[in-house]
Amino acid sequence: MSLKVHDNRRRQKVEFTTIEPGKVKMYVCGVTVYDLCHLGHARCYIAFDLIHRWLEKSGYQVQYIQNFTDIEDKIINRANETGIGWEKLVEDNIAAYYQDMDALNILRADEYPRCTEYVKEMIDIIQSLIDKGNAYVGNDGVYFHIESAPEKYGILTGQNIDAVRSGAGGRVEDTGSGKKDHKDFALWKSAKPGEPSWDSPWGEGRPGWHIECTAMSMSYLGEQFDLHGGGEDLRFPHHEAEIFQGECHTGCSPVVHHWLHNGFVNMDGEKMSKSLGNFWTIRDILEKIEPLVLRLALVNAHYRSPIDMNEQLLADATKNHQRIIETYRAALQSWNGHSEDTIIPAPNGDMASQIPMVKSIGLLEKMAEGFAIAMDDDFNSREAVAKVLASCREIGKILTSSTVLDDKDRATYGYEATLLLEEMAGEVLGLLPSREDTLTEPEEDPAISARKLEIADAVAELLVRRTTARAAKDWSAADAIRDELNEMGVVVTDTNDGPTWDLA
RNA sequence: GCACGGGUGACAGAGCGGCUAUGUGCGGGGCUGCAAACCCUGAAACCGGAGUUCAAAUCUCCGCCUGUGCUCCA
Question: Which of A93, A128, A341, A365 could form a disulfide with A349 if both were Cys (CB 3.0 to 4.6 A apart)?
Answer without folding.
Answer: A365
